[in-house]
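Predict both folds.
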Amino acid sequence: MILIVDADQVSAPSLARLLRYNGHAAEVVPSPIEALSLLPTRKPLAIILDLNLLHITGVEFIRAIRADAAYNDVPMIVYTGEFSQRAAQEALAAGAADVIVKGTVGTQSLLARIEKLLPGTP
């Protein structure tokens, strides 16, 4: 399952549909708190998150996930509409594998970048 952590009611469900259409299980949760509570029972193959989250920042969320050794192998992909070079550098330094700005890549490129980071993908 690919976990999408994003409160955007348009892009998050659209991304989940794209992933499901291409054979991936995907689940959307709007809050990082909900995502963190879900992790002990369901380890995702990857986490896709926005930088602008409810309650904590995306970078804080990445750090919280990376603080638990059980999730060090889970790729985290930032998919955000709010981009700055500094924020991207912070996300990558915190442990994100990629930063993608919403609306800057087509669906096939987006899918390819996500799939490239999934376990078992060449």
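Second protein follows, with its predicted structure tokens after the sequence.
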Amino acid sequence: MIWIFTVLGITHIITGTKIFERFRLAMGVVSPNFFGVLFSCPTCMGFWVGIITSLFIPVIQISEINSYFDFLNSDWVKISVALLFQGAISSCLNWIANVLMTYLDVISTQVELKNELLVSNPLEVAKQLLTEDQN
């Protein structure tokens, strides 16, 4: 759980907060097609954050890789496979979190617009509610 919240938090801080906004813009100027996308995409950045954090908090142990991939003889290959899996897991978790946050943002925006309409023009809202009830 610590690793999951760590990768989600770091990725969100890098790709979606004001703290890194200037950095993201600078990276977009340096290389818009690579670094610009990388530092703005939670799924892309989540992959690399997953790999880097796995160096400190290994989620997949080498013994687990041994049991699934007996044909891999080199420890470096096993470590690389473990890091690749953890990067992929982190990327997937960040994609899910991003989809969920986008959905919640859309829902809250719709609620805000409805509330704004109700406050700004209550007579029009009452007319709409009455016509909906008649249908």
